[in-house]
Amino acid sequence: MTELTLSDFTATKTRASKYLGAEQRLRDMVGFDKVAAYVEETKALVAMRDDGANPQVLANNLKVVVTGNSGTGKTTLARLLHKVFYSCGIVQTDRFEELSAVRLQAAGHKLKTFFSDARGGTIFLDEAYALRSNVVTAQLLTELESVDNRDTLVVLAGYEKEMQAFFDTNQVARDRYVC
Fold first, then answer.
1. Distances, alpha carbon 94 to alpha carbons 16, 110, 114, 122, in Å
2. Which residues have C-beta within 8 Å of that of residue 153, sequence separation ≥ 6?
3. Could you give the CA distance from residue 64 to residue 148 in angstroms, rounded to a whole number?
4. What DSSP element (H or E) covers 117?
């Protein structure tokens, strides 16, 4: 039997208070009703997992696609999702890694290291449609499937038409993301 101490509760309180109001900010954003529903759904899945359900129930729910024109708040949304998920204990580390697909493509061989460094936090991949290499896309999907990355929020962002074209050419990727 495990004995709980005050420090077990203090860490949670500190985590929750660090981003106090992030969830409310997300709910207050105009036009983001679907996102608020997604957060509630994810929190329910975490509760199921915590009650003994297979941890795989969260597998695809932490893989998100955000589309929109320049200046529509894709990065802001990703940062808010990270703050909400961190404060709720859905992601375990307060690490938000932002990377452009162009930069990722150039450093494709370092993808595994990048995921390892961000494990348990959030990866924001901007201009994801720019992933033109099947090798890099395959590596990305491999990392997404890794048991080690189950608790990592991965947000792919880009312009709507370009992201649609990206997923049209890669059905496997489409099946892994909440759009």
1. 11, 22, 15, 8
2. 62, 64, 81, 82, 85, 90, 91, 121, 122, 123
3. 18
4. helix 111-118
Phi-psi region of 20 (alpha: psi -120 to 50; beta: other; left: phi over 0): beta
Question: What is the C-alpha separation between 69 and 40, in angstroms, rounded?
Answer: 26
Q: Is the pTM higher than 0.85?
A: no
Using the structure block, give the residue that is written with the tokens 């033109």.
132
Q: 14-176 belongs to which CATH class?
A: alpha beta
- Residue 56 burial (10 A CB sphere; 0-12, 13-18, 19+): exposed
In order along its 179 residues, the chain shows pLDDT tens digits of 566 555 555 555 577 677 778 888 888 888 888 888 989 998 898 888 888 888 777 766 788 889 999 988 899 999 999 999 999 888 989 999 998 887 777 776 677 788 888 889 999 999 888 876 677 777 777 777 776 667 889 999 999 999 888 888 777 666 666 55
How far apart CA 17 and CA 9 sit, in angstroms, is: 12
